[in-house]
Amino acid sequence: MPLCDICFVCFDPTLDERRGAAAAYAVDLAARHSAHLTLVVGVAQTSIASLSPVFDLAGIEAEANARSRERAETFGERLRELAAVAGVSASVEIRQGALFPVYEAVARVARVHDLAVVDAPRPGFDMHREFVEDLIESSGAPVVLVPQGWTAGARIRRALLAWDGGREAARAMHQAAPILDGCGSIDVVRISGESSRARRAAAETVGGADAARHLARHCAEVSVSDRPARDGRVFDTLQLHAGLTGADLIVMGFYGHSRLRESILGGATRDALSSCAMPVLLAA
Fold first, then answer.
1. pTM of the predicted model, to two decimals?
2. Model confidence over 222-239: pLDDT tens digits?
3. Which residues are CB-neighbours of 211 under 8 A, at least 6 positions away?
4. Mind listing the pLDDT tens digit for each residue in 155-189?
5. Are 36 and 4 in contact (CB under 8 A)?
6. For residue 129, what is the enclosing H or E element?
7. How far is it, in rounded angstroms, from Cα 133 to Cα 282?
8. CB-based contact 68:12 (threshold 8 Å)
9. Confidence class for position 154, pLDDT limits 50, 70, 90
10. What structural domains and CATH numbers belong to the chain?
11. CB neighbours of 269 closer than 8 A, spacing ≥ 6?
């Protein structure tokens, strides 16, 4: 299926004009695929009125929540204007409520889109990281993390697929197919590990050559690379390889907290959330 319906997802603490990279990426991606763009803003509702039996805090609470919604609406209008300039049809949906119900409400919107774009979590912003993790795990859609300061847009000439042969990597490969339409080159990268568990896992999974054979029916140029983990840091190795080969996007599976067994790529997904310097597509 082509990429026709994209959503840009943000959470109200991230409504910061300095963090416009993901919004610009989403607009550019929608323009390149002639897709509709939906901005989904999750707004956590303040609840302080019950904290004091003496002071009437209901008015303060209502004013704070109204300001949060107004900020979200203003942000939505700015994005809609940006999309209009790029010739992209766009709509805005705001979900406001208690923290965790808002997470679920935003994920429900993402479930009925081909792909979601979101700001990569900033170090130290645990609430934002939790929001992004929940979105990836529960939306059912692939999610593209865009780091702050990314200015190269959404043109994907070369992609890197992180491959361990498991279910998560395969799902990421298949879910990334629409965004990789027109990609000139895909590099299937396997990261070797030294532990006996990693060697056993590698022997039991689908090899990189098999994945490349499948991808070669979709893309003219496909290569396979095996790289040792650099100082045991799998994602750092992937990102270094992507930089050296000129990749525009890293595609990888997401290994959530509830997973009882992890392959060598399990830690890479956590590092991708905290230290990506280029767009990363994660699929759970």
1. 0.89
2. 999 999 987 778 999 999
3. 161, 163, 165, 169, 170, 173, 188, 224
4. 999 999 999 888 999 999 999 999 999 999 999 99
5. yes
6. helix 126-139
7. 10
8. yes
9. very high
10. 5-146 (3.40.50.620), 158-283 (3.40.50.620)
11. 235, 252, 253, 254, 255, 282
